[in-house]
Amino acid sequence: MKIIKKVKWALVSVWIFIVLIMLVGTIVIGRSYLSEMFGDGYSIQSLYSISDPIKETYRNLSIIMSEVQEDLQTDPGKFYDKKYLDSLNQKAGNYRTSVLVYIDGEFTYSGIKDEVEKLEASLLTKRAIYINGEKGIKQEEVENSSSESGSGEMGDQGSYAFGKYGKTYEYMLTSPQAYLCNEIDYQINGKSISIFLVTYYGNYVSQFKSALVGFILMMFLIMLVLTTALSTLVYVQFIRPLVRLKEAAEEIGTGNLGEPVEVSDGRKDEIGELCRSFNDMRERLNESVELKMQYEEENRELISNISHDLKTPITTIKGYVEGLMDGVADTPEKQDRYLKMIYNKANELDALINELSLYTNITNNAIPYEFHRVSVKDYFNDCMEEVRADLLSHNMTLNYNNYCAEDVKVVVDPDQLKRVINNIVTNAIKYTDKEEGHIDISIEESEKMIKVSINDDGRGIDKESLPHIFDRTYRADSARRSRGGSGLGLAICKKIVEEHGGKIWATSKKGEGTTIYFTLKKYIKEENKDEQNTDN
């Protein structure tokens, strides 16, 4: 996933998270606020189903009062039953109302928990004020008034009469808190019973402050969670990989190329691609440094070997020249032998210099190849004539077999390919330890390649040295080193064969001989329709 998509998903997730948290927080805080203001019977949903919570509270309280009045008239014994009073108190509690029962000068039930004694004292004080205010009214007048006016009509002192022996008072209390009290008095067999329905008004300002503080805390927690989540996301997705890249770059600056930048395989965004590209660059740099060190080491070895190889013929030439100058060669025969030796060593020196120059040019791609399409039969037949003559001069024989069809062709540089064959054959001649050596050369074809094999019956090469014989300046053993030469012959062969798109390798068995193989691409007419370019 690309970074821009990650950012979009992060923003969408953040908005969804904010909406969910605010919705849940509003429900929780709103429910708490409504419960504190209007009781447990209200929730956020109830705001959309009723017009006014206060009116709804009064309506429900009126229903509860009607039920209490009815029970006092029909079954007053219920108010001596604690279970009934508990259920009544629980029902009234949904509207922040508590039930208290006062019988014969004593509170027998109290459904409120906080500041009970202060509330009971305030109720008794308020009750005394109302009752004392009605002492001058005869009971018969009250009964007549109630019977004439009907239940529920207001009498003196703001009371409401119900039934034959009941009255209801409604008044406010300010101590210990703000309460609305509905007092229901009734006479049962000469005993007075009072039911107090006390509704807590509470402190609206305090409740609003609590709700506001709760909302602020909720928003603070939301911002804290979001900030932490976004910071973690930014650090994990962006900052940490960049810090690792910076540290890796510093390590590369100090020359340490062995520490990769850790990156998850599943990360497909720009940062992941950058880290992988950086690791690829580090690996290429590491390989380049190793190749450079190897190349420098080979150069030092090459210079050392070339210095030694050049010194040997020069020393010989100097020795023979000094012999001529000092008169050691005092006869025409000796002089002629000395001159021939000087001439041979000069030729040897010239060959070493030419071989070194050739290798340098090949390595630097300074030799322009001239590729031509040639017949395998005709080209190798001509080469074998020269090889056969050279072998005869060294008392060696050649066995040549070409198994390719007459029409098989290859695109090669004839001169450079001939150099490959001559170098391999020259090596075979140089390292043959028999009086009469023998070389087998065979050419076979496959679907797309031809394979040339050159086998000699010389001393062979040990297993440890065989993989290195195509390295420049490498000579397998002391016997081979004593043979002279720059050690570049097979390295040149390898370079030329690879430039032709083929490969070269060798097999050998100690004491039995060595076989060197190389391949060349066949010319296929279908792949080269423009025959005018085949010689380019």
TrEMBL record:
Pfam families: HAMP, HATPase_c, HisKA. Residues 305-524 form the Histidine kinase domain. It is an enzyme of class 2 (transferase). GO terms for molecular function: kinase activity. It comes from the Bacteria. Residues 278-305 form a coiled coil. Keywords: ATP-binding, Cell membrane, Coiled coil, Kinase, Membrane, Nucleotide-binding, Phosphoprotein, Transferase, Transmembrane, Transmembrane helix, Two-component regulatory system. The chain crosses the membrane at residues 12-34, 211-236. Residues 236-290 form the HAMP domain. It is found in: Cell membrane. PROSITE patterns: HAMP (PS50885), HIS_KIN (PS50109). It catalyses: ATP + protein L-histidine = ADP + protein N-phospho-L-histidine. Its EC number is 2.7.13.3. It is a multi-pass membrane protein. Gene3D superfamilies: 1.10.287.130, 6.10.340.10, Histidine kinase-like ATPase, C-terminal domain. This is histidine kinase. It comes from Coprococcus ammoniilyticus. The lineage of its organism: Bacteria, Bacillati, Bacillota, Clostridia, Lachnospirales.
